[in-house]
Automatic annotation (TrEMBL):
<dbReference type="InterPro" id="IPR006638">
    <property type="entry name" value="Elp3/MiaA/NifB-like_rSAM"/>
</dbReference>
<dbReference type="InterPro" id="IPR007197">
    <property type="entry name" value="rSAM"/>
</dbReference>
<dbReference type="InterPro" id="IPR051198">
    <property type="entry name" value="BchE-like"/>
</dbReference>
<dbReference type="GO" id="GO:0046872">
    <property type="term" value="F:metal ion binding"/>
</dbReference>
<dbReference type="GO" id="GO:0051536">
    <property type="term" value="F:iron-sulfur cluster binding"/>
</dbReference>
<dbReference type="GO" id="GO:0003824">
    <property type="term" value="F:catalytic activity"/>
</dbReference>
<keyword id="KW-0408">Iron</keyword>
<dbReference type="Pfam" id="PF04055">
    <property type="entry name" value="Radical_SAM"/>
</dbReference>
<dbReference type="InterPro" id="IPR058240">
    <property type="entry name" value="rSAM_sf"/>
</dbReference>
<keyword id="KW-0411">Iron-sulfur</keyword>
<protein>
    <recommendedName>
        <fullName>Radical SAM core domain-containing protein</fullName>
    </recommendedName>
</protein>
<keyword id="KW-0479">Metal-binding</keyword>
<feature type="domain" description="Radical SAM core">
    <location>
        <begin position="12"/>
        <end position="246"/>
    </location>
</feature>
<keyword id="KW-0949">S-adenosyl-L-methionine</keyword>
<dbReference type="InterPro" id="IPR013785">
    <property type="entry name" value="Aldolase_TIM"/>
</dbReference>
Amino acid sequence: MYPLSYIEPVFRPPSEWKSLILQVTNGCSWNNCTFCDMYTAEQKRFQPAPLAQIEAQLKSIIEAGYPVYRVFLADGDAMTLSVRRLHGIMDLLNRWLPHKPRVSAYCLPRNLKNKSVADLRALREKGLSLMYVGCETGDNELLRLIEKGENFDSSLSALEKMKAAGIKSSVMVLNGLGGPELSERHAIESARLMNAAQPEYLSTLVVDFPHGSERFAKNFNGRWRQLNQSELFREMEVFLEHLELDTTIFRSDHASNYLVLKGVLGKDKAQMLDTVRTAIHQPGRIALREEWQRGL
């Protein structure tokens, strides 16, 4: 929609499909997660975009008359930028978009380690109101196996900082990440993390490897395989059973999911559990996505 030149590939959350994707960084500063094929060293070398380049892009958008209702700060973890540079970006947005559209970004928990609640609150006051956080799991062993570079406590600390600063969080958990051996613990520990954090939004997608799972599976020493449908649904059942959320908007409707679930936790928990259990115990009663309909 917008006439900008990007360093490909560019990824954004599904809900940001109408947003201005502003590439304030290139690639991901961590780029070690074994489950992630979004960026590779061959494709992209992490670097921040110069502020002058960002301003030129904003200027071209406004002068061309394109409406901007939302802005997503790409690429993989824009929040790794310093507080000073983030303020510079937000100042440019406020200068060129004085109507203050919603601004969001991906965020790795480590991105906030050296940022205080006061730092984040100041960015919130300038319009940064939502961060997408790939926690993936709450289980420390699994986090180590996937080389996430995070643990339960670091993920919780980041989510608590966001909430204290008034910034909403949208958290992603990966269904099937631990294979059959770690499935139950993955579900329970992920629920425990979400219960402690109480994010505004929570979603799941099914882990998949269209380019092969060898890189991911190597750390499991032969203990990992992809879960089948029934196992995925059972893991989702355990996850939902252990969630104790108040007003979190829950979505399991990404294209990778066989079973679509939508609701608010906790008021819709019983209904969603009933749907999952029907899919497990009465195959064919619940409409599922066909393989050709799924994708990342």
